[in-house]
UniProtKB/TrEMBL annotation:
Primary location class: cytoplasm
Residues in Aminoacyl-transfer RNA synthetases class-II family profile domain copies: 38-470
Subunit structure: Homodimer.
Region (Disordered): 239-263
SUPFAM superfamilies for the chain: Class II aaRS ABD-related, Class II aaRS and biotin synthetases, YbaK/ProRS associated domain
Protein name (Swiss-Prot/TrEMBL): Proline--tRNA ligase
Catalytic activity: tRNA(Pro) + L-proline + ATP = L-prolyl-tRNA(Pro) + AMP + diphosphate
Length: 573
């Protein structure tokens, strides 16, 4: 491609709306342009990167035995009502009506559609297993689109769905797709880690893993152990202090004095209460009121801990969980937020294992400006519902080996689920097994955010003041820069190398613009080709200045430059 013909407009200034480095560089380099919040156009450079990522995904999906297909983005709402997700999915589901007032949704995912297709196409075990995938645009009405392609309202996704006779078949499909994901992200040049995860709105009946690219800008927190292979999303992570707890709490007291009231005027927060009573936050029992599918619950954790909403949602098997409003709390507890406690509270109480194991603690008294000291778990409030309801903290023991847990930030690239029979039972997707009995299909689901992968690769590929794409996804493998457009020897050598690399099937960009060298070099930093061939004064002797991925410039013969690029391109394929 000749740069004079390429639709490429680079920006010198960092766009004010771009927080993440990848967002800044993709805008400055002319890869993407925003049309509306969370909605982007991909200009030629960006589209080239996306197509290369797609190509590798297709290669690995096909090699894993999956079959590509295409499903509509507009889906009948009836399918979502049939699965039970229409009301449960929440505000991110974009709903619309046609001129006949029939209700549809813009697909954020395709479990309902694929289940509907397969239940009509497959009725016998003889046609199982089957794995189907597509690469298609998805839509989610994100409340706060941010970080460019990281969290958008329209994005490109690969979603695959496996169908099996039984759980043994699903286990095999899951392992196959897990391994394929590892190959895909490795080929993209990413530093990543698979972690245990929560199934979220997709749901499921078995294990699930997210594949995380390590990056400081990541919205997710990865909890991992350096001494063993344990790794989990913070939503799912456990501490060795609470993992596997049976609910028996030997420290729970059944005797002693009743809790004592303490006047605590305007003392609402844990920090204020700790200072007022001159005690550590670990001696305080924090009570938060949540609304889960319309019903209120109190959740108790130590004052130095944070409630994990996802764990609460999973324990209650709820579709939606959120903090109750101030008015709801006042009505349910008789006291405002900050003074609520479990003693005498007429709500179901979820007690974290750490709280249940306390001999006594400080709580709200369900009366304004009042707290209780000496509240005893198991005596002054019930331990009927105990579990792991908190976020782990860095440095706690690993649940597998006991060594200290570490925190890292990550970008979710892909997610694999064992759906089991969640959708097939709800939507009556069955088959006749070899014993003549009708059984529900056993499903798996496997997604990759293709456009997010592009952003994650960019995030990890910014080296100081330049972008250096991995060879496998780079829009161009080599960038030929002719320093002086008036020098005929430079022009002749540039055209020769451009022709040779093009004939070898290498994606090459020739900067044939009549611009100052400084402009060309700055644009080359934004284009990010891993190999840069600079043709200057050495052209007369057949030499060029070479700069590879390491950023080191050397003078080499022009023929050697062609050989280096061809070898690197062959490896990337």
């Amino acid at each position: 491609m000749r740069q004079s013909q390429l639709l490429l407009t680079t920006l010198r200034d960092v766009p004010s709306e771009a927080e993440a480095r990848s967002h800044q560089w993709l805008l400055r380099g002319g890869y993407i342009r925003q049309i509306a919040a969370g909605i982007y156009s991909y200009l030629p450079l960006g589209w080239r990167v996306l197509r290369k990522i797609e190509h590798m995904i297709r290669q690995e999906m096909d090699a894993a035995g999956a079959q590509e297909m295409w499903m509509p983005a507009i889906q009948p709402a009836e399918l979502w009502k049939e699965s039970g997700r229409y009301g449960a999915y929440g505000a991110e589901l974009i709903r619309l009506h046609d001129r006949q007032e029939r209700e549809f949704v813009l697909g954020p995912t395709h479990e309902e559609v694929i289940t509907s297709i397969v239940r009509n196409e497959i009725s016998s075990y003889r046609r199982l297993p089957v794995n189907l995938y597509q690469i298609q645009t998805k839509y989610r009405d994100e409340r706060r689109p941010r970080f460019g392609l990281m969290r958008g309202r329209e994005f490109l996704m690969k979603d695959a769905y496996s169908f099996d006779r039984d759980w043994a078949g699903l286990d095999a499909a899951y392992r196959t797709m897990y391994a394929a994901y590892e190959r895909i992200f490795s080929r993209c040049g990413l530093t990543f880690r698979p972690v245990e995860a929560d199934a979220g709105s997709i749901g499921g009946q078995g294990e699930t893993h997210e594949f995380m690219a390590l990056a400081d800008i990541g919205e997710d927190i990865i909890v991992s152990c350096s001494a063993c292979d344990y790794a989990a999303n913070l939503e799912r992570a456990e501490s060795g202090r609470t993992a596997g707890s049976s609910g028996n709490h030997p420290h729970a007291s059944t005797d002693g004095q009743a809790p004592s009231e303490v006047h605590t005027p305007n003392v609402k927060s844990i920090e204020e209460l700790s200072a007022f009573l001159r005690t550590g936050p670990e001696q305080i029992i924090k009570t938060l009121v949540y609304r889960a599918d319309g019903e209120l619950y109190a959740v108790l954790v130590r004052g130095d801990r944070e409630v994990n909403d996802t764990k609460v949602k999973s324990y209650l098997k709820a579709e939606q969980v959120e903090l109750a409003g101030a008015d709801e709390v006042l009505q349910a507890a008789g006291a405002p937020v900050g003074f609520v406690g479990p003693v005498g509270l007429s709500l179901n109480i979820l007690v974290d294992h750490e709280v249940a194991a306390m001999a006594e603690g400080i709580t709200g008294a369900n009366r304004i400006d009042t707290h209780l000291t000496g509240a005893r778990p198991g005596k002054d409030f019930a331990l009927e519902f105990t579990g792991d309801f908190r976020n782990v903290t860095e440095g706690e023991p690993c649940p597998r080996c006991g060594q200290a847990l570490e925190f890292h930030r990550g970008i979710e690239l892909g997610h694999v689920f064992k759906l089991g029979t969640k959708y097939s039972e709800a939507m009556n997707a069955t088959f006749l097994d070899s014993d003549g009995r009708e059984k529900p299909l056993v499903m798996g689901c496997y997604g990759i955010g293709v456009s997010r992968v592009m952003a994650a690769v960019a995030e990890q590929s910014i080296v100081e003041d330049r972008l250096v794409w991995p060879m496998s996804v780079a829009p161009f493998a080599a960038h030929i820069i002719q320093v002086s457009m008036k020098d005929e020897e430079q022009r002749a050598l540039a055209e020769q190398l451009y022709a040779e690399l093009g004939a070898a099937g290498v994606d090459v960009l020739l900067d044939d613009r009549d611009e100052r060298p400084g402009v060309k070099f700055k644009d080359a930093d934004l284009v990010g080709a891993p190999h840069r061939i600079i043709i200057g004064r050495g052209a007369a002797s057949g030499e060029i200045e070479w700069m590879g991925e390491d950023g080191i410039k050397t003078t080499i013969p022009a023929a050697e430059a062609v050989q280096r690029v061809r070898q690197a391109a062959d490896v990337a394929r």
